[in-house]
Write a structure and sequence with these properties.
The chain is an alpha+beta fold and 271 residues long. The protein is built from eight helices and 13 strands. It starts with a strand and ends in a 9-residue tail after the last helix.
Length: 271
Amino acid sequence: MGLKVEDAAATVARAEALGAEIFHQRVGPGELSIPAIRGVGGGLIYFLDAKTDLAKVWDIEFTPVMPSSSGNGVGLTRIDHVGQTMAQEEMPSWLLFYVSIFRTTKTPMVDIVDPAGLVRSQVIEGLDKRFRLTLNGAESHRTLAGHFIAETFGSGVQHFALATDDIFATAAKLQANGFEPLQISMNYYDDVEARFGLDPEVADRLRSANILYDRDDNGEFFQLYAPTFGEGFIIEFVERRGAYAGYGAPNAPFRIAAQKRLMRPKGMPKI
């Protein structure tokens, strides 16, 4: 995971002073020495800033490509949030890790309902909301989160969400490019239409695109998922309207049920 900070060297120095493990790697020709520390599950967190050559990382370490002449962009604008999964007993230490090193706030912990058990979830956010990280603690290996930990031999990044300003346009463009969304149960749309009093036309648009919906007093939230990759890695596309600041927690049981239908049954060996 890479984070842009005000001063990469100072951030690493602060992290080291607080007990974080610093990561060093050999730098080859045409490469930058990018400061990094080890985070959840031994994963690496790299730091960039605008005041050093780190600001030129894309020019120095990457070869630019020409935009597609077919104009097949799908309207994605930024990373909305990243989700890290761990055993529940690890959550307090990793929560302290993030709030000690970075200027962040934390939201109240919520329970995500998985048919096989509860997953505790806590969100860490930057003061400007551009950095959003969900920490998900699994109680049971039978949950989707627990399955991910067991199959990938430990904690790590399981989920990232990409933002769009028009979820329906993004869904249509993804479909035109051959994308197949996670199939959500039709019962979900009957429930959400009744719960929020949605116009039937809006409900039909959600249903036809397999888009999940949530709303609170501050705004609306739309979610579109790809089928899971490997043993539970998740890619999500989201649109926030108004000042909605949540993550669609009421939709989690329906999304998890859809994801589990696609996973290798427990006890079935890998081939």
